[in-house]
Amino acid sequence: MDLSNKNINGELKYNEIEDLLKNYYKTQDASDINIQEEKDFDYSKVNNDELILHIAKFTSSIWQVHPFGEGNTRTTAVFIEKYLNTMGFNINNDMFKNYSSFFRSALVRSNYVNIPKGIYPTFDYLVMFFENLLQNKNNKLENKDLYIKELFTSN
């Protein structure tokens, strides 16, 4: 249903659209991103690998919400940078700036699924990014590695 067109065509008034949107969002499952769950997460109880995976999953869930027409990846990067700094990590924007395309593609790969083609979400690339960012590892962060060949080959 295209609510904006219905409003433009005079089929629905603004307050009717507002009510429909409020009801829609009340019924949506917000379990994908639970800030309180993140606040309650005890980072001291996990090893470095689990910590990096948790941060990758949390970052992916924030990006998945995609509330803006433009700037979702940049907003996510700034949020995560500031969030990690509040947790005691001393990071700046350099990794996000220097590997912005890789970071965005890694976020896409962490959410993309195409079951008929055997493609499932993977956090591997975000993990590599965060290992470099937080543990000074030297994973190669190359966009060509994120290429999904199954999308471009015929069966």
Task: Give a quick rundown of the structure.
This protein has 155 residues and is mainly alpha-helical.
Can you walk through the features of this model?
The chain has 155 residues and is mainly alpha-helical. It has 2 domains: 30 residues, no CATH class; 117 residues, no CATH class. It is 55% helix and 0% strand. It is built from 8 helices and no strands. α4 crosses α8 and α7 packs across α8. It is globular, with a radius of gyration of 19 Å. The mean pLDDT is 85.
Features:
155 residues; mainly alpha; 2 domains; 8 helices; globular
Largest sheet composition: none
Number of helical elements = 8
How far the N terminus sits from the C terminus, by CA atoms, comes to 34 Å
| pLDDT averaged over residues | 85
Evaluate the radius of gyration: 19 Å
What is the string of helix and strand elements?
HHHHHHHH
DSSP helix fraction: 55-70%
Number of domains: 2
Structural class: mainly alpha
Categorize the overall geometry: globular
Number of strands: 0
Assess the beta-strand content as a share of residues.
under 5%
Low-confidence stretches: none
Secondary-structure map:
Blueprint: H1 3-8, H2 14-27, H3 35-40, H4 48-65, H5 72-86, H6 94-98, H7 100-109, H8 124-135
Helix pairs in contact: 4-8, 7-8
